[in-house]
Write a structure and sequence with these properties.
The protein has 369 residues and is α/β, with parallel strands linked by helices. The protein has helices at 3-6, 10-31, 42-50, 53-56, 70-73, 76-86, 109-114, 125-134, 151-163, 178-186, 200-206, 212-218, 229-244, 264-273, 303-306, 322-326, 350-353, 358-364, and strands at residues 36-39, 62-65, 91-95, 118-121, 139-144, 169-173, 195-199, 222-225, 250-252, 274-281, 285-294. Helix 2 runs parallel beside helix 13 and helix 3 packs parallel to helix 18 (358-364). It starts with a helix and ends in a 5-residue tail after the last helix. Iron/sulfur cluster binds at residues 319-322, 325, 332, 335, 337-338, 342, 348-349, 351-352, 359. GO terms for molecular function: 4 iron, 4 sulfur cluster binding; carbon monoxide binding; iron ion binding. Belongs to the HypD family. Keywords: Iron, Metal-binding.
Length: 369
């Protein structure tokens, strides 16, 4: 039997769901409102929609989606920089497929490609290194996005480029770190969070201990969750009693993947190649120590060093509420453009572009909401 089948068992799921509902009702009675819980990871946002759990729990929990979609949190200025870069005749821009359709001030990378710019989709950072080898007369710039999960693979790709003595491979790092964003959200009284469902993938890299600060500093409970229905329900079974008892703890409800201290090798390669810096997040603004930039000794591979292009601050697409949605202040259907002018085929903002974006997930699974 495949392992995931165990976590999709219908009868068991229905039993646990009933228990979660009962706990949520009890917590709601105590709080005088539904408990507000944020799922921080885009994969959880999709899983909650795909499995129908978001709609099944809607009367019991106020589930908010957070800034866990890497495409969505990439700042407009980063996209504008890549658009300017794509116009350089000697440059090939390489990035993940979802980034191509995200609108910037001067269009999208997809449009730039249609107009003749060299923009290539890569399924892994290593492919960008291969591209650099096959375009020796061009400079390949890889736009690295994502969190602690994707950054190690980008760091390894850079090491490979160094080993291969490639001078035409550069990196534009728009990588983000999850714990500083959680600090910002945990301390925001407007959000009024009662707890977090923490991202299983990022936790696999960082370990449970990286999130203990939520309990110690912000007095908030949290549960690390996997992505199958019983994983999520199991995390809620752990989280809701904590909310009921007003007890702040960080529970690892995904122990088959997440350890206390995480993946040491991945952490080591991140420390070797990158250092934290203040990064600009779409919707959340500049958060101290929340991004990864190349260390000083790797500046020869830094795109901004070789191409110091000036990018002006860019306003969000007119009418788009991605900022408020990424912060958990709004839900996608509250955006007046949702499902009307903005659909996955005609996205106005990044939250509708990415498969992990909240708006795309709500749209795709709207019959389940
Ligand atoms: Fe932006 Fe579209 Fe989402 Fe509205 S529905 S917030 S326009 S991405």
């Amino acid at each position: 039997m495949k392992l995931w089948v165990l976590y999709r068992q219908r009868e068991l799921g229905e039993n646990v769901l009933a228990k979660v509902k009962a706990l949520a009702r009890e917590a709601a009675d105590k709080l005088g409102r539904r408990p507000v819980i944020m799922e921080v990871c885009g994969t959880h946002t999709v899983a909650l929609g795909r499995t129908g759990l978001r709609s099944l729990l809607a009367d019991y929990l106020d589930l908010r989606s957070g800034p866990g979609c890497p495409v969505c949190v990439t700042a407009p200025e980063d996209i504008d920089y890549m658009l300017l870069l794509a116009r350089q005749p000697d440059v090939v821009v390489a990035t993940f497929g979802d980034m191509l359709r995200v609108p910037g001030s001067y269009g999208s990378l997809e449009q730039a490609r249609a107009e003749g710019s060299q923009v290539q989709v890569c399924y892994s950072p290593r492919e960008a290194v291969e591209l650099a080898k096959s375009y020796p007369d061009k400079t390949v710039v890889f736009l690295g996005i994502g969190f602690e999960t994707t950054a190690p693979a980008v760091a390894l790709a850079l090491k490979e480029a160094i080993t291969e003595k490639l001078k035409n491979f550069l990196l534009y790092s728009a990588h983000k770190l999850v714990p500083p964003a959680l600090s910002l959200l945990a301390s925001d009284p407007e959000l009024g969070l009662d707890g977090f469902i923490l991202p299983g993938h990022v936790s696999a890299i960082l370990g449970r201990q990286a999130f203990i600060f939520l309990a110690e500093k912000y007095n908030l409970p949290a549960a690390i969750a996997g992505f199958e229905p019983l994983d999520i329900l199991g995390a809620l079974m752990e989280l809701l009693p904590l909310i009921l008892r007003r007890e702040a703890q960080v529970i690892n409800a995904y122990p088959r993947v997440v350890t206390e201290t995480g993946n040491q090798k991945a952490q080591k390669i991140l420390e070797e190649i990158f250092s934290p810096h203040s990064a600009n997040w779409r919707g959340l603004g500049i958060i101290p120590e929340s991004g990864l930039k190349l260390k000083a000794c790797y500046q020869d591979f830094e795109a901004r060093e070789r191409y110091p292009l000036e990018v002006r601050p860019s306003p969000p697409p007119a009418g788009c509420r991605c900022g408020a949605i990424l912060k958990g202040l709004s839900l996608p259907p509250e955006c007046p453009l949702f499902g009307r002018r903005c659909t996955p085929l005609t996205p106005v903002g990044p939250c509708m572009v990415s498969s992990e974006g909240s708006c795309a997930a709500y749209y795709r699974y709207s019959q389940n909401i």
